[in-house]
Amino acid sequence: MTRAVTRFAVAAAVVVSACGSPTDGGPSPSTPAGPVTSAPPAAAAAEPNAAPTRARTIREYIATNGLQETVIHRGDAGAPSVDLPWMDGWEDAGSLTPEWAYSAIVYRGDRPEEYTPNIVVLMSKLTGAADPQGVIDAAPGELADLAGWTPIGEPGPGGRDDYPSYRLGGTWVQNGVTKVVAQTTVAIPADDGLYVVQFNADAAQSEFDIADAGLTTVTEQAIILP
Predict the structure, then answer these.
(1) Residue 49 Cα distances to 28, 44, 45, angstroms
(2) What is the structure's pLDDT at 18?
(3) What is the 3 state secondary structure string of 144-198?
(4) Which residues pair with 106 in a beta bridge?
(5) What are the structural domain ranges in the chain?
């Protein structure tokens, strides 16, 4: 299993600093952040001879099933492509895109706070007996580990007609500040493995409408070509 497994435990919520730059304070694939640092490995957390249970997070699903994870960057040969739609007020993060991310966009329109709403796209390939529904079932677990996590609305299907997907959102507390995060996970079966894409929106609590609208458009209109 590669070091990139930690990527799915942090979402956008901990890859963005208080100033809103997608690179400041963000974890690298080899540096866990947020709840990952205190969460035991799935194998270590299980009681001896305990009956098998459904993986609670994607990280646990990867470990439990002995899958190999490979970080995918834009342009990698053989990998699906993800093209984000144009949205008023949003622009490509350019050089601010984290090196471990597939892509990222930031909001430059009018907003109530100095914090910059952003959407970070992650992609990994899982090699082995990976089941798309198993990944989707485990998708909600990462955000639930965030400090002070409070769900907003009802989680459920992510709005994709082409691939299995799951979306949820809520608030959490970072350094005493309440923030909002929303996430859509998409499972893309392929001949060489299962590709998992996550769209992660992050914003200040007062910017929820901006982040929510942005993620909805990205999730529903992003062009994913296998």
Answers:
(1) 35, 12, 12
(2) 23
(3) HCCCCCEECCCCECCCCCCCCEEEEEEEEEECCEEEEEEEEEEEEEECCEEEEEE
(4) 91, 118
(5) 3-225
Tell me the pLDDT tens digit for each residue of 28-70.
Answer: 222 222 222 222 222 222 333 334 455 689 999 999 999 999 9
pLDDT digits (tens, 9 = 90+) for 69-104: 999 999 999 999 999 999 999 999 999 999 999 999
3-state class (DSSP) for residue 44: helix
Q: How many CB atoms lie within 10 A of CB 30?
A: 10
Task: Check: CB of residue 180 under 8 Å from CB of residue 207.
Answer: yes
pLDDT over 50 (residue 21):
no
From first CA to last CA, the distance across the chain in angstroms is 24
Among candidate residues 59, 12, 17, 22, the one with its CA nearest the CA of residue 196: 59
- Secondary element (H or E) of residue 225: strand 223-225
Instruction: Name 182's bridge partners.
Output: 169, 201
Superfamily in which the 3-225 domain is placed by CATH: Mog1/PsbP, alpha/beta/alpha sandwich (3.40.1000.10)
- Where b means 16+ CB within 10 Å and e means fewer, 166-197 reads bbbbbbbebeeeebbbbbbbbbbeeeebbbbb
Percent of the chain with pLDDT over 90: 69
